[in-house]
Specification:
Layout: E1 3-9, H1 15-28, E2 33-37, H2 43-53, H3 62-86, E3 90-94, H4 97-107, H5 112-123, E4 130-135, H6 138-150, H7 166-182, E5 187-191, H8 196-213
Parallel strand pairs: 1-3, 1-4, 2-3, 4-5
Helix pairs in contact: 1-8, 2-3, 3-5, 4-5, 4-7
The chain binds thymidine-5'-phosphate.
Length: about 220
């Protein structure tokens, strides 16, 4: 029922712009869709997003970080994603469980079995049907991400992850590529160095193909 598409990638990979364009594209074609994000997508998720992404006057250890992302996801799946899919919508989600496996598991080095268990618990059995991975060198992505952060209001800058060492971001990229290699059926790796228009075309191509395969094209 419905179609669940996730967008993943390192910081500054351009996935958020592409998710907006994909939402507009589906809207133009009259295909009902929910555009959402993690952490976020619900009132609880937005509160947790602030705690997780803004550098606050408190520490967040990796274990607490993992549990907070999982809590945001559990609420998001139950409150927003499952109902939208049950209503036959296309759900376009900016990051999902792969982000936890890669950032908290692969890059932070938390026990992978625990991460997988919490991912399974929070997604309630609903894996994405398609995952678009926007891949590009971390230096390029970080430069783009930092330019965007500069424009944010002081105190509201979502830069806790951007502030990590280059080696951390390299692990994130590597972790995503490994995940894509493991699950070739679900992942499509997109070279994110292209222009916005080029990337849009590629995203729409993958969406159209998936909609056709599922008999959901109108
Ligand atoms: P973004 O919405 O701008 O992509 O920012 C989300 C940040 O949170 C990004 O740095 C990746 C990080 N993140 C995790 O570490 N684990 C997760 O499970 C999710 C959803 C995001």
């Amino acid at each position: 029922m419905g179609l669940f598409v996730t967008f993943e990638g390192i910081e500054g990979s351009g996935k958020t712009t592409q998710i907006e364009l994909a939402g507009e594209y589906l809207g133009q074609r009259g295909i009902p869709c929910l555009r959402t994000e993690e952490p976020g997508g619900t009132s609880l998720g937005r509160r947790l997003r602030e705690l997780l992404l803004n550098r606050g006057p408190f520490a967040i250890c990796p274990e607490a970080e993992l549990l907070l992302f999982a809590a945001a996801r559990a609420q998001h799946v139950r409150e927003a994603i499952l109902p939208a899919l049950a209503a036959g919508k296309v759900v376009l989600c900016d990051r999902f469980a792969d982000a936890t496996a890669v950032y908290q598991g692969y890059a932070r080095g938390l026990d992978m079995e625990t991460v997988n268990f919490l991912n399974a618990f929070s997604i309630q059995g609903r894996h994405p049907d398609l995952t678009l991975l926007f891949d590009l060198p971390v230096e390029t992505g970080l430069t783009r991400a930092r330019t965007r952060i500069e424009l944010m209001t002081p105190g509201q800058k979502e830069d806790r992850f951007e502030a990590e060492e280059l080696s951390f971001h390299r692990k994130v990229r590597e972790g995503y590529l490994l995940a894509a290699h493991r699950e070739v059926e679900r992942f499509r790796v997109i070279d994110a160095a292209g222009t916005i228009a080029e990337l849009r075309e590629t995203v729409c191509f993958h969406l159209d193909r998936m909609l056709m395969e599922r008999g959901l094209n109108t």
